[in-house]
Specification:
two-stranded antiparallel sheet, 3 helices, two-stranded antiparallel ribbon, elongated, alpha+beta
Length: 142
Amino acid sequence: MDFLDAFNVSASGLTAERTRLHTVSSNLANARTTRTAEGGPYQRKSPVFESVPVDPFGDALDRAVAGVRVADITSSPGEGSRVHDPSHPDADADGFVTMPDIDILQEMVDLMGASRSYEANLNALSATRDMALHALEIGGGR
């Protein structure tokens, strides 16, 4: 494994966590959306990550090192919660509205986790850059 592989692993983590941040913010923004183009309330979205080998043709260490990519973004199959609000434009004949099945607290926890993971990947990227620069200084100082 070389510096470029380390950069690629960190960059893939940054990209994946950015997607996670976008899906969480979409969930938060639509936590009270009762009508979508597909019909019904907004459904919670979450990214599905998978590992991707950095160098599938390298030696055993290179094959073991993997980055991450977003394989899919899935929608929650949850039914949502029914809330009695007869004045709501999407209320049924009994006055109930189906709200999205989104827990704001859980979304905030996911947001903090994604933010911390993003920061960890950024720190790894910075440390790798610093090591590469020091290696160049050592090699050029002969």
